[in-house]
């Protein structure tokens, strides 16, 4: 490969993730029907769990590995270079971050062991603006849910949702089992191939114990979990952008038209450089944020800086995706190149953890 | 009213009335929501136009054309778009038809034109190959003459509609010696011929519409050759000339502008004033730019009516409108993406979320700057005319 971005944090975690993502590439391209793809994704999740990824960010006190932000970033960087379609940032990073200290024990040991596959949900983000968002009310000893969660990234065969939603008007954290007789579920694949769910909550009731915590501590944890999600999406974006620059160079260096490799045409060289410069700036931005967060904590990152960063990286990811499609010509539109998985992943970046409009409003 | 006595306003009203009353509601609904048109909808619509005598506005009268002047044809195309009626399926009517009329034998015209006119025979275009995209003249699919047949071996790719077509008009190489452009011949190949296999290509928009077509010893009667052997390239050029004005119709852009404005107004972004204002501003900028292409299109039409040469105008319109359409697609993406990208492919037989066509059209629409002469190739051509080399 003529251009390869160096790993953000080299080491076994990066290598292991890159290996699994590369193997997923071949296994997924061999199947196209939804059930067959779901089976492959399920197997991939089991391999990810066997590698201990869901435990990385779980504190040792809760039977996790007690790893650092850099550990998780290394995994996402490796996996992101082949757009491994698993919700790693959500399930391995955001879930532990949503739980205030005292509530962790109920959930995290099961996450760490791989027994539970938990999808994080934020009522305020994962909603269709035209229908009611998820909410809950306590009534006697039970919790009555309403509204719906839309397009929630979820591990294959998700067993639970950890839902941040208003409960009697205050921030609440609800553990919602996704088994038979629970909420209505609609299954989808996202544009980037990751599994996702709509969770229909009208008429669902849960025992009072499902409300893990409520109030200020929950709101604070949710805000920092969202900040972490935002940061991790940007990490994945940088990984995908770098890989796509490399693959575009490789494609243009082998494709021949008019008796020349396309890499000889100046306009295409410049087009590729445009993608590269987008990648370089986004990468520097993300490295600075990860470094700052590692020194203090994600919760202490300057909020406005983070919103501006997401605005930047969301646009950059889209420009790199659109540019790479154009440079590949018709091949850019097929689902049959590794590059296509990267472009589809990059087109999701703008929308994950709040789109440009959301972050612009918060930064203004 | 013009010198020839044509009342264009009355003509426009007549076409509009026809569109609104005769185009089936399900087809108009499909067009209105930006759905993918296939043979079923398109051929039903073509049959309705045909029954009314409007099957082929761009053909001479003797072959079933309408005898309309250029301005009327333009009004017709515009009104179809404004009324959410499908544009006419182009492969037979606009691409192959004019070539057959100009270069085909009488027997070929009798055999092929009626099926195009009434929409009963479906055509696709087999030009591109894995190694021949922008550089189409490097195509390698070979046809060797054996008695009264050509034996064809090779592969086509990106063949839109091949999965539902009956016939493929195909560029093949009949001579290895001649200069690249010269040894190329135009053959009409029935897709049910032995030796043809069709494989769908999966595309990022999750629609099935392009294919690979493999030709393995396919025997094609020599009477299916159009014009002279080795002259296929010049028929392609003829077509290019014939079709130059197709891009002058900016009605699809205006239609898309109106649809996107409605999308934003109808509360897809309710409760989020900031997003809505930003989108409306971008839409206004796009609208302002559309006024420019519209003026160009108008000028091109007038110039053609005066029989003046068009120069670069057609290429400028193609470049500009392709990019503007992509900008509109992107505005719609930003209005809807937050509820669509996360629910792209339903699993378990769910219905796709309402409005998924916005996302699919955004993805598919990336092709506008790639096919029909990519942006880069168009700019190369324009630069050559400007610099003189
Ligand atoms: C959805 C879809 C439908 C299609 N339908 C049909 C169909 O029905 N029938 C058919 O025959 N074909 C069809 N095509 C093929 C289409 O015409 C080709 O994709 C197009 O000609 C571009 O060729 P390519 O894809 O091989 O790209 P390439 O030619 O490989 O181009 C790759 C990139 O290089 C650039 N480039 C190429 N040459 C130069 C140059 N000299 N200078 C600078 N830049 C250059 C291009 O602009 C592009 O950005 C379709 C394609 C798509 C994607």
Automatic annotation (TrEMBL), chain A:
Keywords: FAD, Flavoprotein, Oxidoreductase. Residues 231-361 form the Acyl-CoA dehydrogenase/oxidase C-terminal domain. It holds the Pfam family Acyl-CoA_dh_1. The keyword Nucleus does not apply. Its cofactor is FAD. It comes from the Bacteria. InterPro entries: AcylCo_DH-like_C, AcylCo_DH/oxidase_C, AcylCoA_DH/ox_N_sf, AcylCoA_DH/oxidase_NM_dom_sf. Belongs to the acyl-CoA dehydrogenase family. PANTHER family: ACYL-COA DEHYDROGENASE (PTHR43884), ACYL-COA DEHYDROGENASE FADE28 (PTHR43884:SF20). This is Acyl-CoA dehydrogenase family protein. It comes from Roseomonas populi.
TrEMBL record, chain B:
Keywords: FAD, Flavoprotein, Oxidoreductase. PANTHER family: ACYL-COA DEHYDROGENASE, ACYL-COA DEHYDROGENASE FADE29. Its cofactor is FAD. This is Acyl-CoA dehydrogenase family protein. InterPro entries: Acyl-CoA_Oxase/DH_mid-dom (IPR006091), Acyl-CoA_Oxase/DH_mid-dom_sf (IPR046373), AcylCo_DH-like_C (IPR036250), AcylCo_DH/oxidase_C (IPR009075), AcylCoA_DH/ox_N (IPR013786), AcylCoA_DH/ox_N_sf (IPR037069), AcylCoA_DH/oxidase_NM_dom_sf (IPR009100), Mycobact_Acyl-CoA_DH (IPR052161). Gene3D superfamilies: Acyl-CoA dehydrogenase/oxidase, N-terminal domain, Butyryl-CoA Dehydrogenase, subunit A, domain 2, Butyryl-CoA Dehydrogenase, subunit A, domain 3. Residues 9-119 form the Acyl-CoA dehydrogenase/oxidase N-terminal domain. SUPFAM superfamilies: Acyl-CoA dehydrogenase C-terminal domain-like, Acyl-CoA dehydrogenase NM domain-like. Signal peptide: none annotated. Belongs to the acyl-CoA dehydrogenase family. It comes from the Bacteria. Residues 124-203 form the Acyl-CoA oxidase/dehydrogenase middle domain. Residues 230-386 form the Acyl-CoA dehydrogenase/oxidase C-terminal domain. It comes from Roseomonas populi.
């Amino acid at each position: 490969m003529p251009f390869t971005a160096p790993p953000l944090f080299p080491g076994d975690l990066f290598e292991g993730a890159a290996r699994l993502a590369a193997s997923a590439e071949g296994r997924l391209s061999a199947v196209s029907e939804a059930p067959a793809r779901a089976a492959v994704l399920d197997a991939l999740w089991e391999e990810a769990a066997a590698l201990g990824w869901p435990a990385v960010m779980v504190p040792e006190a809760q039977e996790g590995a007690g790893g650092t932000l850099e550990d998780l970033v290394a995994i996402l960087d490796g996996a992101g270079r082949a757009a491994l379609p698993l919700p790693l940032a959500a399930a391995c990073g955001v879930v532990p971050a949503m739980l205030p200290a005292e509530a962790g024990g109920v959930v995290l040991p099961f996450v760490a062991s791989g027994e539970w596959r938990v999808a994080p949900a934020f009522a305020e983000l994962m909603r269709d603006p035209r229908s009611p968002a998820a909410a809950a009310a306590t009534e006697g000893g039970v919790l009555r849910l309403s509204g719906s969660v839309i397009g929630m990234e979820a591990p294959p065969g998700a067993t639970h949702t950890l839902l941040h939603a208003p409960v009697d008007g205050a921030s609440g954290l609800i553990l919602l089992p996704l088994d038979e007789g629970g909420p209505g579920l609609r299954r989808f694949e996202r544009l980037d191939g990751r599994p996702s769910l709509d969770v229909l909550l009208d008429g669902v009731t849960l025992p009072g114990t499902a409300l893990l915590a409520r109030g200020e501590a929950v709101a604070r944890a949710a805000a920092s979990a969202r900040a972490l999600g935002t940061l991790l999406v940007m990490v994945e974006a940088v990984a995908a952008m770098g890989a796509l620059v490399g693959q575009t160079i490789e494609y243009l260096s082998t494709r021949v038209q008019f008796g020349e490799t396309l890499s000889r045409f100046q306009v295409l060289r410049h087009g590729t450089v445009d993608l590269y410069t987008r990648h370089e700036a986004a990468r520097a931005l993300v490295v600075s944020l990860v470094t700052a967060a590692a020194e203090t904590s994600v919760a202490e990152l300057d909020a406005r800086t983070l919103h501006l960063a997401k605005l930047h990286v969301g646009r950059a990811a889209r420009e790199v995706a659109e540019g790479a499609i154009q440079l590949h010509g018709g091949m850019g539109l097929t689902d049959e190149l590794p590059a296509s998985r990267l472009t589809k992943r990059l087109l999701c970046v703008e929308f994950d953890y709040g789109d440009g409009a959301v972050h612009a409003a918060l930064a203004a | 009213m013009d010198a020839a006595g044509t009342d264009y306003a009355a003509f426009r009203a007549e076409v509009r009335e026809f569109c609104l009353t005769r185009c089936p509601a399900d087809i108009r609904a499909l067009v209105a929501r930006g759905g993918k048109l296939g043979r079923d909808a398109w051929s039903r619509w073509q049959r309705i136009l045909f029954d009314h005598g409007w099957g082929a506005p761009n053909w001479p009268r003797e072959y079933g054309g309408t005898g309309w002047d250029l301005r009327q044809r333009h009004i017709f195309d515009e009104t179809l778009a404004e009324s959410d009626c499908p544009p006419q399926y182009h492969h037979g009517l606009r691409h192959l038809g004019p070539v057959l009329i100009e270069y085909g034998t009488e027997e070929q015209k009798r055999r092929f034109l009626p099926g195009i006119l009434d929409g009963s025979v479906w055509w696709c275009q087999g030009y591109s190959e894995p190694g021949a995209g922008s550089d189409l003249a490097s195509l390698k699919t070979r046809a060797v003459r054996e008695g009264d047949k050509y034996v064809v071996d090779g592969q086509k790719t990106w063949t839109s509609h091949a999965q539902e077509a009956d016939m493929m008009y195909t560029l093949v190489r009949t001579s290895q010696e001649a200069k690249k452009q010269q040894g190329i011949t135009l053959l009409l190949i029935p897709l049910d011929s032995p030796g043809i296999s069709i494989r769908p290509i999966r595309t990022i928009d999750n629609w099935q519409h392009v294919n690979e077509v493999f030709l393995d010893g396919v025997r094609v009667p020599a009477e299916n050759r159009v014009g002279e052997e080795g002259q296929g390239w010049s028929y392609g050029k003829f077509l290019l000339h014939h079709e130059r004005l197709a891009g002058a119709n900016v009605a699809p852009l205006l239609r898309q502008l109106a649809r996107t404005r409605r999308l934003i107004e109808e509360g897809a972004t309710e409760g989020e004033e900031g997003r809505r204002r930003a989108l409306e501003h971008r839409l206004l900028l796009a609208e302002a730019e559309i006024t420019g292409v519209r003026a160009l299109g108008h000028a091109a039409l007038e110039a053609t009516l005066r029989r003046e040469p068009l120069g670069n105008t057609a290429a400028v319109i193609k470049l500009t409108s392709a990019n503007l359409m992509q900008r509109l697609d992107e505005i719609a993406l930003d209005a809807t993406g937050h509820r669509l990208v996360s629910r792209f492919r339903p699993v378990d037989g769910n219905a796709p979320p309402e409005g998924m066509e916005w996302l699919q059209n955004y993805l598919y629409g990336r092709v506008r700057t790639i096919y029909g002469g990519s942006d880069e190739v168009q700019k190369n051509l324009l630069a050559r005319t400007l610099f003189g080399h």
